[in-house]
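Supplementary material to the annual report.
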Amino acid sequence: MSVPLLRVRGLSVQYATRRPGLRARAGTVTALDAVNLELAEGRSMGVVGESGCGKSTLSRAILGLVEPQAGTVEWRGQLVRRSDAAVLKRMRRELQGVCQDPFGSLDPRMTIGESVAEALDALEGIRDPAAAARRIAGSLEEVGLDPSLASRYPHELSGGQCQRAAIARATIVRPRLLICDEAVSALDVSVQAQIVNLLRDLSERHGMGLLLISHNLAVVRYLCQEVVVLYRGRLVERGPRDALFAAPLHPYTRALLAAVPRPVPGAAPWAAPIRAMADPADLPEAAGCLYRGRCPAADGMCAREVPALRDADAGHLAACHHPGATLVG
Amino acid sequence: MSRTLLAIRDLDVDFDTPRGRVRAVRSVSLDVAEGECVAVVGESGSGKTQLFLACLGLLAAQGIVRGSASFAGRELVGADATALNELRGTRLAIVFQDPMNALTPHLSIGRQLAEVVLDRGMMNADQARARSLEVLEAVGLDDAPSRLRQYPHQLSGGQRQRVAIAMALMTKPSLLIADEPTTALDVTVQAQVLGVLHQATRQGLGLVLITHDLGVVAGIAHRVAVMYAGEVVEIAPVAELFSAPAHPYTSALLDSVPRLDAPADGRLPGIEGQPPPPQASVQGCAFAPRCPRAVEACRSAAVPQHRGVARSVACHRPLTLEGLGA
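Predicted assembly:
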């Protein structure tokens, strides 16, 4: 089997914390706990979960922006370390990111054209200004922006236009993989649909892989061939899109699916079989399944043993003692 | 039919800017009854927020309001600050989108909740505490007594948004205006917050839910008003709006919502193009340049209003005329 584009093995990231109060006590919070995943060239994967599940930390660790406590990230078979600037630089030509806030990710003092040019210059160092200008105009056109907008500043554009510009900046160097961290969740639904279509077109046209980080499973379903569900830093379910959406195994995945707003009168997403997210302080100990405090199917077994990630059916895996259990909300 | 709480009639909002007058809201009429949830849906810049800021007398200084908005029989447009202050935060409450900015960072949750009623002399300290616990439980926050001692930074975004809603409910308002209350939240927390609001309407609260996402309103709204470029282009009961939208814009907005129950292999049908800039003078229908059904008349002639008993649409070529008095 060929070397995958991206391979993440046993990735764990911890952040130092301080408890509030006078006698501050340093502690750690585990943002990612031994996560494994692989992504082949040109494939698309969605990473879903609520705020705090570690999905952004995963993208930051892959991009080399945080140092993991354990585990490795391999880019096309090569180990990625934060300290290895040469590998990182090469990788960044091939691996680009787009983040959630389209206004925050563009420098307010630079025109759109300058922002896109900066990426091109930093990563390819093009010397010929005329050629660079052509590339920039082409890149803006490709994301559906009029090249005349190159001379505008971010504040003169709408949120959707800024997000297109951020995508142009990320894709002008033709990356092999684009990591989108909630790249559509701050947008109006009509604009969100445009950006979803744009990402899909770019990915198909250039064989560019996508790693889409999102809390909305419906968006992931339109863009991703594979889906990974994270809960409090652990990978709880992974599977091909159709299998995962048709027959989700983990109760948490089912709860996430039930919470997606449906444009159907009478739909009651608040009746979803999920309990309120507990305070981090109240969460059960790391032993056992971390979801058990919210899970309607939890029993004694779930408190004793950490469920292992098991293959239920043709690459559809879940870390649950009662996968596919019938749930009564 | 229950009592009408808020009656908006022919409301216009303009802004004087250095680049000329901008029309943010054009001739909007809308009613909200007791126990009713009216969703106001539109894209950024459609005027949905400005419409209600105008009703509450909270427009920026260069804003100009014409028309009428009456709340329980009292005119709000042009009312003096004292009269408005008496209503705002007591019988008429508002929750904004950003839960991070709605709370004062250096005051405890308990203090902020109690302040709402203490400052107005509506309750004594004991009553205020009891009411605080009541509203925190109503919004589904567990362990309410210890929440009172917490500060905003100790809460997650969803918890803060629920505290903001609890604060709005302190005085038992009859009308709550919630501006994108769940847009910044995870889907799971969004579902909980919608559940809280749904429960409140069942107890008689009139609710205006401002949002850009039609998916969010399906379960909670009784009626939906769709705004485009400052105008209400369609009003309909929620079932009719979703099963048979009359305005092509409503239909396009519905199609934009990513669904779990539709084939996902094709493209997500969004709406190409952008709304007209607010300073543009529009001939005919403002949606015509983006509308797949537009004909010559749409670009030039004044838009006809079709009105039925329960629904209305402003369109030259509506997708249906059922229930629209044709």
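DSSP finds ten helices and twelve strands in chain A.
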